[in-house]
Amino acid sequence: MIDRQRLAELHAREEREFVERHPVSRERALAAGRSLLGGVPMAWMTRWPGSFPLFFDTASGARFTDVDGIEYVDFCLGDTGAMTGHALPQVADALSHQARRGITTMLPNDDAAWVGDELARRFGLPTWQMAMTATDANRFVLRFARHLTGRSKVLVFDWCYHGSVDESLVTRDPATGRTLPRPGSIGPQVDPSLTTVVVPFNDVAALEAALAEGDIACVLAEPALTNIGIVLPDPGFHDALRALTRRYGTLLVIDETHTICVGPGGATRAWGLEPDFFVIGKTIGGGMPAAAYGMNADVAARLAPVIAHDGIDVSGVGGTLTGNALALAAVRATLGSTLRDEDFAHMIPLATAWTDGVRSVIDEHRLPWTVQQLGGRAEYWFCPPPRDGATAAAAVDHELDAFMHLFAINRGILLTPFHNMALMSPSHSLDDVDRHTEVFRQAVEALVA
Question: pTM value?
């Protein structure tokens, strides 16, 4: 239904507007290109629309200002890392206070015990360890799972995302079922079919067939797919997943790094999930790099001798900065003051309003698009609601994505760059949501005029 010639013309117009509005960012980007690969300190920062990345000056709450002095409503929030809102004063104060008392000693302090207790209270697993990122936490958990089961393989769902974990940067060949490197994954250390089995999300029969082979150490799963678009579980899918993993002696790892948007205890608490391991990252440090992984009592008892072994320092689990005092101070300040029931009571209705606003525009113009909500997160697609990752991936329209994002940026709205997703924070308002609906309507009207 979209005229591609018109789309190209509109995109070119928006690109010209972007360049004219951001001369200082353009200058900074050119300068950064002298010493930074791609002109950015981390490769993903090249994924923004526009011919160069914006350089931000300040960020606070649900807004940031770029170096050209333009303010934006931020629905990306560091792709969940700043879901609490930017520049929380209590986190900044905790970081400043702890930095003057010592940052890293490889020794625990009182914050460590508080954080462990709070994680257990929120997510329901009794025993915890820290990591620097959710990627690290997932890596560590996969090692533990292989050790405990004596099995070599990991099962993930097609088009999942669990950070830069090698075993999870995979997809499934729909014709043969063979595990393939995910498009964009570079330099896999081994053929991923040696380490990983991939099945479609929501496909219970395929899941059971894979587990029945008896070589799967663990299933690594998000409660809902989030990084290929929000793909919700079918009714009963998680009950089947838990029952089948227990039947075949496979450990279940739930990664809630994105699905923490469901509530204070994530989907695990809200949906009554019962994982053997649980991974959480990004949000718990209020923007400071920090992550954690929990385990049930049985797993903790079985791992106790491993942790006590004098070779634990070369086990492949940990790192000298893991669990440092600065990160723990940030986690305590964050979890002690935000991501509470009252915060989600504010965020989730805003996500509903965002969803309703987008849907009203889609319906008005009779577009074959859809919008999906998961707690305080929502996203629109240019297709009907998919049930699995492959269907979602097949519907990606890079040209249309780029236009919608660039149109929004030029009108003061930032969405998550990898897809058309918005995340709410306690600092967002209904006015912010209404502004997005207005901009989304303008973009659609330009396309279909």
Answer: 0.97
